[in-house]
Structures are given as C-alpha cells and as structure tokens.
Amino acid sequence: MSQQVSSPPTSKHLETLAIKDRELSWQIASNLFISFKYAWSGISYAFLTQRNFRIHVSVCALAIGLSLFLHLKAVEISVIGITSGLVLALELLNTAIESLVDLTVKQTYHELAKIAKDCAAGAVLISAFVAVLVACALLLPPLLILILSATQS
C-alpha cells in the first residue's frame, strides 16, 4: 500500500472550508451558543482568508506578550489590548463591507463601491497607526531600559 503525500491546503481550499462552515448562517440564531458559533465562524473566515487579519492578530499577540514580559501595569496592558482589539474588530468590519459591496456590484466597477471599500480600509489603517503609537509609547521606555541594563552588565 502506498501512502499519498498531501500538499498543504491552499488559500482557496481554506476559503472553501470557511464558506461551507457558514452555509446556514443566514438563519436567525436559536440560542446564545449558536450566536457565538456564527461569530467564531466570521473570525475563522477572516483568519483563513485575510492576510492582513493574520498580520494584525500576530502583532496584537506580540504586543500583549511583550507587555506581560516587561511587567507593564494592568492599565497599560489593557490599553494595548483595547487598541489591538479595535484594529481586529475594524478589520472584520472591513472584510464584511468588502464582501457586501462585492455581492452588490458583482464584477462591475462602481465609484460608490470604491469609496465604501477605501473608507473601510482607511478606518483599519487609522486604527492600526493609533495602536502602533500606543504600543510604542507604552512598550519602548521599559524595553529601552531593559536593553540598556543588559548592555551595561
């Protein structure tokens, strides 16, 4: 018996799996568990199909991990978490708006569709810049102190 070596899943394959998981999402959730399932399905879809969402998740995890490593105050970790969470939430909204616009205009160009997509992407960009500013303000001072103390010893 020969074993078949399967290739890693492509992004198209992952997108197909994510879409299959959402087949009944048009229905009203019958209970809280189903509501959470639909929400998780949206997050999973974005993670599997949106490169920028994966980048934002990685940077968010890095910032919070560095915050914990540097023993920042709870309020500082919270501020980093809030700003990072805002970026992720806006990236999800951007994906939703892009999908809805694509559904509406199909394969045609429309100036209002461009405006909607560009403004949603701009909202993500602004939130990402603010998150970087907050992370730099809170993480750089203790990180520099740690680096300087390590080089002096």
UniProtKB/TrEMBL annotation:
ATP binds at residues 38, 98, 117-118. One of its GO terms (molecular function) is kinase activity. A divalent metal cation binds at residue 98. Keywords: ATP-binding, Cell membrane, Kinase, Lipid biosynthesis, Lipid metabolism, Magnesium, Membrane, Metal-binding, Nucleotide-binding, Phospholipid biosynthesis, Phospholipid metabolism, Transferase, Transmembrane, Transmembrane helix. Gene3D superfamilies: 1.10.287.3610. Its cofactor is Mg(2+). InterPro entries: DAGK, DAGK_sf, UDPK. It comes from the Bacteria. One of its GO terms (cellular component) is plasma membrane. The keyword Metal-binding applies. The active site is at residue 91. Substrate binds at residue 91. Mn(2+), Zn(2+), Cd(2+) and Co(2+) support activity to lesser extents. The chain crosses the membrane at residues 28-48, 55-72, 78-101, 122-148. Its main location: membrane. It is found in: Cell membrane. Belongs to the bacterial diacylglycerol kinase family. PANTHER family: DIACYLGLYCEROL KINASE. This is Diacylglycerol kinase family protein.
